[in-house]
Amino acid sequence: MTNPTLTLVLEIMQIAASIAPAAAVGDSDAIEVATAAQLAQALLAIAQKASAAYQAQVGNPIDVSLLHSIDPNG
Amino acid sequence: MTVTKVTLTAVLLLLLAGCATKTNTTTKPPSHANQLNAFDGQTYDTLLVAQSAIESAQEQLKAGKLPEKYKPLIVKAALSYNTAQALYKTWRSIYTGAQAGDLATVQAELTTNIVDLTTQIDALKQMVSK
Questions:
Q1: pLDDT in single tens digits along all 130 residues of chain B
Q2: How far is A28 from chain B (nearest CA, A)?
Q3: Residue B101: which domain range?
């Protein structure tokens, strides 16, 4: 895949995967490591969802109805 | 803390993922059979990915898996996304003749909106790294 959007998503996944070990190196506190691991998991989930959205529409016709406003406060 | 910075950088990259395709003109994205032109296809891909990433980030925030401090960033990204997707739909309507308007102006606004989002996020990155 050469699409820059997907490339960035993959880069994010790599960063996320590196977070937990990076935390363990300089900080042995178990809570910190657990927090970092949780953050990494959250980032992976976001990246995976974005990647899936991209993969699902590759080669398919544009369907503008799939794009909708987002409630900023979610 | 290094981990916090790395994490925020990752979140910022994620939210920027949809914007990055605008500045890369050397990589050809996959085409859609019904796209109006390359800009149309690339913008559609960009918005779809950004929408998914922002909504997913909101879910992670709600679930308590992302710290609350990221909320302002996600809110701003959502607002910028909303503007961009509305402009995109307007651009398409003008392009197809369904709506009157200045195509070049709307396209410029759409591009500016994405640049603004990038600048906004860069400023936040600098704020966090202090």
A1: 455 555 555 555 555 554 444 444 455 655 798 999 988 988 888 888 888 888 888 898 898 888 888 888 888 888 988 999 999 999 999 999 999 999 999 999 998 887 766 665 555 444 444 3
A2: 13
A3: 2-20+38-129
With respect to residue B46, please indicate whether it lies within any of the assigned structural domains.
Answer: yes
Per the domain annotation, does B13 fall within a domain? yes
Contact A50 B79 (CB under 8 A): no
Q: What DSSP state is assigned to residue B115?
A: H
CA distance B46 to B16: 10
Domain count, chain B: 1
**For B88, nearest residue in chain A (alpha carbons):** A64
Domain assignment present for residue B28? The answer is no
Q: Give the global pTM.
A: 0.73
ipTM tops 0.85: no
Q: Is residue B65 part of a domain?
A: yes
Instruction: For A68, list phi and psi in degrees, rounded to 5.
Output: -140, 165
Q: Decide if A62 and B75 are in contact by the 8 Å CB cutoff.
A: no
